[in-house]
């Protein structure tokens, strides 16, 4: 039976419209923080560290500053991969040193994340409406609304990691992937953040097995392996350079974050804190995402993707438990598995309505209206303003401790 005129174009435009709405809602909610100074909050404390390194990189040069890790504000700080220093320095140069430019790696990265999640989930074979609804619902969570503008490595590395996952998914499905993109994104992921490094290692290991077994597209697989190794070598060399030939400061930081020294964190305390943060940062959307994640693990289209997302998020929380207890945004990367779960759950729901084709457009419209109401409600009545919980957006203009903008 031939489709009615205009039906296919409406299907094609549904996903871009839902993603556009997600981007608009995020920008609308984040508009009061993108140009605000850093205050006494997670947002402010993290932002001051990275902006100080960026300033040092621009003013002292890459050699004297060791790519931004040495500056008068923080002394030597090389506890995370260095790409964020370079990103911030570039956006500050392009944006003439405004606060919006300093925060640009975060909020521009989150905008990219919205589009890349849509591309990744759609490439997995899920319905466009299901993908759009999932990304839109994830956008309404306090985790993304509050911390999507925070200048820190979990925020800036996630879009790069999703881009790498997109290349990986296409390679797994035998689609055309340019080796330069595969290798370049893998190396960038290693230099972007610790969880992104874990993902790059996972993808590189998968590709290495294929190279050894001589299966798949050998050029692309070799590119994944070379990218992971190159990124790892550059990261190790940079850290030794920044720390003066030793990795002891990094080892001490790992001991602290994992609860091996100073603050001891038991399993019960960890689970209680994550339950508390999960309710505050993800709410009902998170619960639906977890339920959908079970379906995603059973669905051949998304099983590998869901397993990879779990593999780089859950261990990070359980191993670095002190960090997870003390930082409400430590689970920022859980946005990825929750989005996968929501997309698969929405796809199943739409599949049950297959025989009622005329009603299928209703659900995306309802979700779009609900998302708009939730974000507007969060704007009018923001999430709890406790600095160690959800108040990353709450900055203090003129408050004591607020740092000046970048010079």
UniProtKB/TrEMBL annotation:
Ranges for region Disordered: 37-66
Keyword list, A-Z: Membrane, Transmembrane, Transmembrane helix
Record carries keyword Membrane: yes
Transmembrane segments: 104-121, 130-150, 185-211, 223-243, 277-297, 304-324, 330-350, 362-380
Membrane recorded as keyword: yes
Protein name: Glycosyltransferase RgtA/B/C/D-like domain-containing protein
Organism: uncultured Acidimicrobiales bacterium
């Amino acid at each position: 039976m031939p489709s009615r005129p205009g039906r296919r174009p409406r299907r094609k435009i549904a996903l871009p419209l839902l993603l556009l709405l997600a981007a608009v809602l995020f920008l609308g909610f984040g508009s009061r923080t993108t140009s605000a100074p850093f205050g006494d909050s997670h947002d402010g404390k993290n932002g001051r560290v990275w902006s100080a390194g960026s300033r040092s990189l621009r003013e002292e040069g890459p050699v004297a500053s060791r790519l931004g890790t040495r500056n008068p504000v923080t002394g030597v700080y090389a506890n995370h991969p260095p790409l964020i220093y370079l990103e911030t320095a570039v956006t500050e140069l392009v944006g003439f040193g405004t606060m919006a430019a300093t925060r640009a790696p975060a909020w521009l990265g989150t905008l990219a994340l919205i589009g890349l999640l849509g591309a990744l989930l759609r490439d997995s074979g899920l319905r466009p409406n299901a993908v759009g609804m999932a990304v839109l619902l994830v956008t309404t969570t306090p985790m993304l609304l509050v911390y999507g503008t925070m200048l820190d490595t979990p925020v800036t590395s996630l879009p790069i990691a999703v881009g790498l996952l997109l290349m990986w998914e296409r390679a797994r499905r035998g689609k055309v992937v340019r080796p330069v993109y595969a290798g370049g994104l893998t190396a960038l992921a290693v230099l972007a953040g610790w969880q992104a490094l874990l993902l790059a290692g996972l993808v590189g290991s998968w590709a290495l097995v294929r190279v050894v077994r001589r299966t798949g597209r050998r050029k692309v697989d070799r590119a994944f392996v070379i990218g992971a190794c190159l990124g790892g070598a550059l990261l190790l060399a940079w850290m030794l350079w920044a720390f003066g030939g030793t990795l002891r400061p990094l080892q001490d930081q790992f001991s602290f974050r994992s609860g091996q020294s100073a603050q001891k964190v038991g399993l019960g305390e960890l689970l209680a804190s994550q339950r508390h943060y999960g309710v505050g940062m993800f709410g009902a959307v998170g619960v639906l995402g977890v339920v959908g994640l079970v379906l995603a693990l059973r669905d051949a289209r998304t099983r590998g993707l869901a397993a990879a997302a779990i593999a780089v998020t859950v261990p990070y929380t359980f191993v670095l438990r002190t960090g997870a207890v003390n930082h409400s945004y430590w689970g920022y990367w859980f946005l990825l598995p929750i989005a996968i779960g929501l997309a698969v759950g929405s796809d199943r729901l739409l599949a049950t309505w297959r025989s009622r084709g005329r009603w299928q457009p209703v659900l995306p419209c309802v979700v779009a209206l609900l998302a708009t109401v939730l974000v507007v409600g969060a704007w009018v009545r923001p999430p709890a303003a406790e600095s160690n919980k959800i108040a990353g957006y709450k900055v203090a203009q003129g408050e004591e401790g607020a740092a000046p903008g970048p010079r």
